Amino acid sequence: MKPTRDPSGICPIARECGACSAIDVPYDQQLTRKQRIVADLFYDIAGSDSSLPPIVGMEDPFRYRNKIASPFAPGRPAKPRGESKGKKVPPRREILCGMYAAGTHRIIPVQSCPVEHPSGRRIVNAVRAVMQRYGVEPYDEDAGTGFMRHCVVRVGHESGEVLVTLVTNGREFPGGRNFARELVKRCPEITTVVQNVNARATNAILGTEEHTLFGPGFILDTLCGLSFRISSHSFYQVNGVQTEVLYRTAIEETHLGGAGGANRPITVMDAYCGTGTIGLVAAASAENVQVIGVDNVESAIRDARQNAAHNGIGNAEFVVDDAGAFMRRYADEGRSLDVLLMDPPRAGSSPEFLEAACALKPQRIVYISCDPETQARDAKYLRKRGYRLDSLRLVDMFPHTDHIETVVLMSRKDT
């Protein structure tokens, strides 16, 4: 889509950053383009786009990102700081923080971002100021030296609680608690500060070791009426407003209230369940629903179990396992499944997973995707294995970008 206005009027670094590739396009035109892309991808499965419900956009498509991450790096030497007791004080280097330029690790300084929560970037800049006060050196990616690598800020969608994760190139953080207290003094909305240790030469932001410097080490937030505990490693959607729309759309597509009659238990499997968000929303939606959440990340399952207990939900269990292997065993045991909820990574599902799903023969499959191209590919596979596409719905989770979130309902042709 051709730009229709100068992006610098909305964001001065839009061209360098490149993250919001469509910020120079009116929002209604962005939505129309995304609708057309999905309609074209699913044309040979769903036919004409005349029956495709309109994509659900945002009333205010700005300031929606509740997770903000910023790298730190050394800049040019600062100006000399004068003399102390007759000795020249060596200049400290500037501390760069902001965003990486598109396709590079060159940091673009950022004071504010039109799609980030207003508190997030202000807190990142406050971390930089406290680093300068305490003489904390930024990480030099090329040399592997320096201490502070990243700052990650998470803001609760409804609670407003704020988690700040300081990613360091080593465990020892002299004065770390004083650093955290100074940061909270400057930004009182912060409710907890965590040090995450990542001393590896890697592009991954977070390491595995953590220490709480201030507060409980996690935040709580409300989503679809449930309370969720969010730590630095928790998967939690960055757009709370549209996540509620997406999850409620997916739960509507399961038709749990009318599945098999109110007296028969309904079994729902939440594959790729992560911390259990959508599975718990499903469990809370009907009394006769039994949810089984499966994920191969142990820490995510631990969070899911804590979230279930925290919300008093007893009709959901969570298992550490490969979802495909779990479904194959489930089928071999002669057990049945009413609904399969799946929200795979951007690459879509593997053939092994889809084969296992077809062997289990759930009556309905509700497939949430952040990449409609791989979703369309998987939907074609399922159609060949006895499923029909009943509905396709779109949610705009990331305004001003090319990303599209879709929910597909497929049911067995013999149902």
Written overview of the protein:
- The protein has 415 residues and is α/β, with parallel strands linked by helices.
- The protein contains eleven helices and 18 strands.
- Strands 5-4-1-6-7-8-9 form a seven-stranded mixed β-sheet, covered by helices on one side. It has a seven-stranded mixed β-sheet with strand order 14-13-12-15-16-18-17, sandwiched between helices.
- It is globular and about 75 Å long.
- The mean pLDDT is 89.
Fraction in beta strands? 25-35%
Oligomer: single chain
Number of beta strands: 18
Order of strands, widest sheet: 5-4-1-6-7-8-9
- SSE ordering: HHHEEEEEHEEHEEEEHEHEHEHEHEHEE
How is the secondary structure organized here?
Blueprint: H1 14-17, H2 27-41, H3 43-46, E1 67-77, E2 83-84, E3 87-88, E4 93-100, E5 107-109, H4 118-134, E6 148-155, E7 162-168, H5 176-186, E8 190-197, E9 209-214, E10 219-223, E11 226-230, H6 240-254, E12 266-271, H7 277-285, E13 289-295, H8 298-310, E14 316-320, H9 323-332, E15 339-342, H10 351-360, E16 364-369, H11 372-384, E17 387-395, E18 405-412
Parallel strand pairs: 7-8, 12-13, 12-15, 13-14, 15-16
Antiparallel strand pairs: 1-4, 1-6, 2-3, 4-5, 6-7, 8-9, 10-11, 16-18, 17-18
Helix pairs in contact: 4-5, 9-10
